[in-house]
Write a structure and sequence with these properties.
The protein is α/β, with parallel strands linked by helices. Helices cover 54% and strands 15% of the residues.
C-alpha cells in the first residue's frame, strides 16, 4: 500500500497501551509503520486495522526485546530491506509494584533488562543510522516516577530515572547530528500497565488517571517541536513542580501516600 508520507516510524511495545496509540496516531498522519512486540496476534490485528483505515504500509515484527541479540537481528533485517527508520518510539517496558525484598529476582532483573538494556540497545543501533543520515527523531518513554524514588516501586522508578537522564544527555549529544531525542514522562494512565504491574490503584490515582490519547499526542508534539522532555497533564506537571518546591522528605512522603493509600 502507498503511504502519503514515505517516512518509517518504529514503535516498540506496539501490541497494547501507549504503543498501540502511537501506531494509530502516526498512521493517521500517513506514516509507514514497523510494529514490534512479542504478541504476534495482537500486532497482526492492529496492522490489518491500520492498513484498512489509513492505507499505510505496516510491517509486523515479532521480537522479544529483552533479547539484545534479537534487537540486533531486527536492525540488520530492516537494513537488508532498505528500510530507514526516521522515528523511533522506544515505548516497550513493564513495571512491578511491591516491596523490594519480596519481589522475585528474575522478575526484577527482567524489568531492568527490558526497561534499561533493551532501550539503550535500540537507541544505539537506530541512533547511529540517523546520525549517518543527518536526521531522525527518538522518543524515550520514561515515567512521572522517574522524578521520584518510589516506595514499593523502587526498581521501576530507578529504571525510568535512567531513561529520563539518558534522554537528557542524548538530547544535547545528538542535536549536533540533526537527531532529536525527547523523553515522555506520563503519569498513571488507562493503558493496562497498572494491572500488569500489579499496581494498587488508589482513589487518588483514579482521579489522576489519563487516557492514552492525550498522553501520546503530547509526546508526538514535543518530539516534533524538538523539546528535551514533556510531562503530559497539569496534575502531573504540578507533581514535578512540587519536587523543586519542597524538601525531599516531604515530596517522597506525599508520593508514597498517594501511591499506597
Amino acid at each position: 500500500m502507498a503511504s502519503d508520507n514515505d517516512s518509517w516510524v518504529l514503535v516498540t511495545g506496539a501490541s497494547s497501551g501507549f504503543g498501540e496509540e502511537f501506531a494509530r496516531q502516526y498512521a493517521a498522519k500517513g506514516h509507514s509503520l514497523i510494529l514490534v512486540a512479542r504478541r504476534l496476534d495482537k500486532l497482526q490485528t492492529l496492522a490489518e486495522s491500520l492498513r484498512g483505515t489509513y492505507g499505510v504500509n505496516v510491517l509486523v515484527e515479532q521480537v522479544d526485546l529483552s533479547d539484545i541479540d534479537a534487537i540486533g537481528r531486527l536492525h540488520s533485517q530492516l537494513l537488508d530491506q532498505g528500510i530507514a527508520v526516521d522515528v523511533l518510539i522506544n515505548n516497550a517496558g513493564h513495571g512491578l509494584q511491591g516491596p523490594f525484598l519480596d519481589a522475585p529476582l528474575d522478575a526484577m532483573m527482567g524489568m531492568v533488562q527490558l526497561d534499561i538494556a533493551s532501550l539503550t540497545a535500540m537507541t544505539r543501533l537506530f541512533g547511529q543510522d540517523m546520525r549517518q543520515r543527518g536526521r531522525g527523531k527518538i522518543l524515550l518513554v520514561a515515567s512521572l516516577l522517574a522524578h521520584y524514588g518510589v516506595q514499593d516501586m523502587a526498581v521501576y522508578g530507578a529504571a525510568k530515572a535512567y531513561v529520563l537522564r539518558l534522554g537528557d544527555a542524548l538530547h544535547r549529544e545528538f542535536k549536533q547530528d540533526g537527531v532529536t531525542v525527547t523523553s515522555l514522562c506520563p503519569g498513571i494512565s488507562d493503558t493496562g500497565f497498572a494491572e500488569a504491574a500489579k499496581q494498587k490503584i488508589t482513589f487518588a490515582l483514579k482521579l489522576l488517571m489519563m487516557k492514552p490519547e492525550p498522553v501520546v499526542r503530547a509526546g508526538i508534539r514535543a518530539l516534533q517541536a524538538g523539546r528535551i522532555s514533556v510531562v503530559p497533564g497539569w496534575a502531573n506537571k504540578s507533581a514535578v513542580a512540587m519536587i523543586w518546591a519542597t524538601p525531599r522528605w516531604i515530596h517522597q512522603a506525599i508520593i508514597a501516600r498517594l501511591m499506597n493509600s
